[in-house]
Amino acid sequence: MAFKLFVATPLNLFSQKRKNEIIKINRLNVSEIPDNKLQIVNLINSESTIQKIREINPDLIIVNGTKIISQKVLNSVPCKFINTHAGITPKYRGVHGTYWALVNDDLENSGVTVHFVDAGIDTGSIIDQAQVKPTPKDNFMTYPLLQLSSGINLLHKAVENYFNNSIVTKEGSKESYLWYHPTLWQYLYYRVTKNVK
Q1: Ramachandran assignment for 27, one of left (phi > 0), alpha (psi -120 to 50 degrees), beta (any other)
Q2: pLDDT in tens, 59-72
Q3: 195, HSE (Cβ side, Cα atoms, 13 Å)
Q4: Contact assessment for residue 66 and residue 86, using Cβ atoms and an 8 Å cutoff
């Protein structure tokens, strides 16, 4: 709560110009999804969600920014689930991959991953990855937008390859770590000691 109040909210306000810049450069469509295209669910792993998925009977499910999906949901339909993850897996599983890569002086592993979803936390087979290089204008609130911008291109290619039966998965790093939201004190410490915004 303290992080959100004292860091995320002010940073978000001060980052709007940079966010608009990223949106414009990458020609991102930020218009609202039409209501007739939405199916609202309360819990990703509920029986009602499984029922809705079965009714739709999709050929492929694209995941972005949800809680961990249970094996029961993953097995509820015969299609695959593909996720765009804001980090290079398996080294930066969890959240805020670019932020933690910068904290660890690991720019090489600042990026985005498109992967198949399994019951683990960002542990599914890797389809593609791309490096993301933040500029001095970027910060905690713009890193995810940079990752999303790059990830959309990877996702486009992955979906095309999926339907052409030409997806080839690749090996990731031997290192695997699960990262969480920084606390207010962690953020301030790394801001002062490493200038990671």
Answers
A1: left
A2: 999 998 788 999 99
A3: 5
A4: no
Q: Are 95 and 180 in contact (CB under 8 A)?
A: yes
Q: Which residues of the chain have pLDDT under 70?
A: none
Neighbours of 190 (CB within 10 A): 18
Give Cβ neighbours of residue 36 (< 8 Å, ≥ 6 apart). Answer: none
Query: ∠ CA 97-98-99 to the nearest 5 degrees?
Result: 95
Rounded Cα distance between 1 and 24, Å, is: 31
Q: Are 47 and 72 in contact (CB under 8 A)?
A: no
Nearest to 39 by CA among 26, 55, 20, 23: 55
Taking residue 194's Cβ as centre, other Cβ atoms within 10 Å add up to: 12
Indicate the DSSP class of residue 179: E
* Helix and strand totals (H; E) in the chain: 8, 6
Element holding 79 (H helix, E strand): none
Residues 31-51 have pLDDT tens digits of 998 998 888 888 999 999 999
Token output for 39: 């199916």
What pTM was estimated for this model as a whole?
A: 0.90
